[in-house]
Amino acid sequence: MTESVDVVLIGGGVMSATLGTLLKELQPDWKIVAFERLGDVALESSNPWNNAGTGHSALCELNYMPDPADPAKAIGINEQFQVSRQLWSSFIDRGILNEASTFINSTPHMTFVRGEKDVAYLKARYETLKKQPLFKGIEYSEDSRVINQWAPLLMQKRTKGEVFAATRVPAGSDVDFGSVTHQLFDYLRSQGAEVRLNHEVKKLKKKSDGTWDIRFRNRVGSGPGRINAKFVFVGAGGWAIKLLQSSGIPEIKGYGVFPIGGQFLKTSDPKLVAQHQAKVYSQAAVGAPPMSVPHLDARKVDGEGSLMFGPFATFSPKFLKTGSWLDIVRQVRLSNLGSMLKVGATNLDLVKYLVSELMKSREKKIDSLREFMPTADGKDWELIQAGQRAQVMKGGKLQFGTEVVSSADGSIAGLLGASPGASTTVSIMLNLIAKCFPEHTAAWEPKLKELIPTYGETLNDKVDLAVATETKTAEKLGLLV
Fold first, then answer.
1. In sequence order, what are the residues at sequence separation of 6 or more whose Cβ sits closer than 8 angstroms to the Cβ of residue 269?
2. In sequence order, which residues have a C-beta less than 8 Å from that of residue 399 and are 6 or more positions away?
3. Which of 19, 162, 292, 295 is an S-S bond match for 281, by CB 3.0 to 4.6 Å?
4. Which of the four pLDDT bands, split at 50, 70 and 90, describes residue 467?
């Protein structure tokens, strides 16, 4: 007899972990099973070395505000990160997450630009953002002495007469989403949920009663199996499109994904780490996707400090770091072929950028680092391979955000896309819950407001609420206000 459960989560990343934990808090009696094809959770995009670990809150990322007079998207990203902070705070109170320092640390967020055009842009951006409550405390300077105090490695041996500027928000953070993922799955296990590692879901089929028949394979043990679920979430990174296509839901028609990989330069030299306690972003190269914005990041993983610089784009046809070389081909359908061909024809700048990145030698990558850090010595840095990002293609356009695709009846949903991804997981999952479980909305709302005090509200248009909320969560998470 086929096993039946309430919820199946496919993929062992922060998205599945967050959704599973929320559902377990909202409906403790539901039976939840998670499948992960690798030997542990958080080994793909949620792994700290597969991403730059920035708590994306638009404090320093210029791609969220291309027009310096229009802060709408930046505010929206920041609002979503505030929701994540509130939920994490509540999870600490409930013992679901360990103390804050195990996954989040105060790290100022900076933007550094060079040249008169970019300096003018950054100043205009600063003038706009300093008026917004969620961006209070943002600082701006063109003074090398001030910027040297903020981030010494940026200023040492800088060319005399060079035009540059920087902004800084002391209240930024560094997040280890791998740690968050592990802790949430540990909690789910303690509450009776199953996390089946080395299990790869192969096929999804909807039954006449509206439930889902899920075929899987144990990659190290007993072979094939099946399970029946009332609701399925596909949080499998780039693998998601393959499974959603296998489900046959019409909502996935027309979608394709384009994989982009990356490398980072990394150092754990204590002398260098001590001189750079910030995340510093700059402008992307012409044609570069937003995920390729260069940044020099202070990281803390498992208690050890390090610096990462990059990313440098790479190309692989795989949708996951551990995916198949045939992934990019196997996604092709009549419904998405035209759109994918149009993307290729209308994104020649991206193609040119990728080719130039692929031709970069290690020394050229060190030269790119020296634009940020003039004193960089190649022997102090190692190249590491980051994760794969599967960018959404739809309607002939390449999209760089995250997008939830769900069936009309809400019985299955999956996540496509990349940045800002993990930092906005909580908001993405709350929207998914509202869309897929409308019959439970009224009953669950009190619990959601208990977990997230400003649930259903915005903060930036309510100064007192914004200040009070930021202060409370900062204290709980051990962050600067």
1. 380
2. 391, 392, 393, 417
3. 295
4. very high
Structure-token match 């009663």, residue found: 209
**Residue 434 falls inside a structural domain:** yes
User: pLDDT digit string (tens) for 355-369?
Assistant: 788 788 999 999 999
Q: Which residues contact residue 274 at a Cβ distance below 8 angstroms, ignoring those fewer than 6 apart?
A: none
For 155: left if phi > 0, alpha if psi spans -120 to 50, otherwise beta; the answer is alpha
Instruction: Report yes or no: 136 and 68 within 8 Å, Cβ to Cβ.
Output: no
Query: In terms of Cα–Cα distance, which of 109, 138, 108, 137 is closest to 123?
Result: 138
Give residue 86's domain range. Answer: 3-463
CATH of the domain at 328: 3.50.50.60
Please give the structure tokens belonging to residue 92: 């600490």
Instruction: List all residues 6 or more positions away from 63 whose beta carbon is below 8 Å from its beta carbon.
Output: 284, 290, 293, 400
Helix (H) or strand (E) holding 205: strand 199-206
Rg, C-alpha atoms of the chain? 22
Span of 80-94, 340-354, 371-385, 392-406 with lowest mean pLDDT: 340-354
Residue 293 · residue 112 · CB < 8 Å: no
Our count of domains for the chain comes to 1
CB of 332 within 8 A of CB of 339? no
d(CA 70, CA 67): 5
Percent of the chain with pLDDT over 70: 97
Cis peptide before 438 (omega within 30 of 0): no
DSSP one-letter code for 283: P
In a domain, 22, yes or no: yes
Over residues 402-430, the mean pLDDT reads: 90
pTM above threshold 0.70: yes
In a domain, 471, yes or no: no
| Terminal CA-CA length for the chain | 55
Write out pLDDT tens, residues 175-211: 999 999 999 999 999 999 999 999 999 999 999 999 9
Q: If you count them, how many residues does the chain have?
A: 481
Nearest to 153 by CA among 273, 63, 60: 273
